[in-house]
Amino acid sequence: MRPGHGEQLIAEGDVALAEDEERLVAAFRAQLEQGMWAAVPTVAPSGRREAELVRSFDEIPRDAERVIFFPRAAGGAR
């Protein structure tokens, strides 16, 4: 996602197909290399929507429908 632009599809495919998985891994890595964070949306037992941060493609659950990329916060402690 880019601020002010809504959702944008970066890549989609079936991780069970080697060709698709390679393309998805490449797209995932490209986003991380651009400084983005990645999270997988989840639903807690209470029904509350949450997200789990992931740092590598292998951390993404195989049944995940999407991965959300967002920019890291600017600034920080000095």
Explain how this protein is built.
The structure is a single chain. With 78 residues, the chain is of the alpha+beta class. Helices cover 21% and strands 23% of the residues. It is built from 1 helix and 3 strands. The chain has one helix at residues 18-33, and strands at residues 36-43, 49-54, 68-71. A hairpin with a 5-residue loop joins strand 1 and strand 2. The mean pLDDT is 88.
Notable features of this structure?
78 residues; 3-stranded antiparallel sheet; 23% strand
Uncertain runs = none
Helix-strand pattern: HEEE
Mean pLDDT: 88
Strand order of the largest sheet: 2-1-3
Number of DSSP helices?
A: 1
Beta fraction: 15-25%
Q: Which range best describes the helical content: under 10%, 10-25%, 25-40%, 40-55%, 55-70% or over 70%?
A: 10-25%
Structural class: alpha+beta
| Rg over alpha carbons | 14 Å
Beta strand count: 3
Distance between the termini: 28 Å
**Major β-sheet annotation:** 3 strands, antiparallel
General shape:
globular
Summarize the helices and strands and which ones pair or pack:
Layout: H1 18-33, E1 36-43, E2 49-54, E3 68-71
Antiparallel strand pairs: 1-2, 1-3
Summarize the structure.
The chain is an alpha+beta fold. It has one helix spanning 18-33; strands at residues 36-43, 49-54, 68-71.
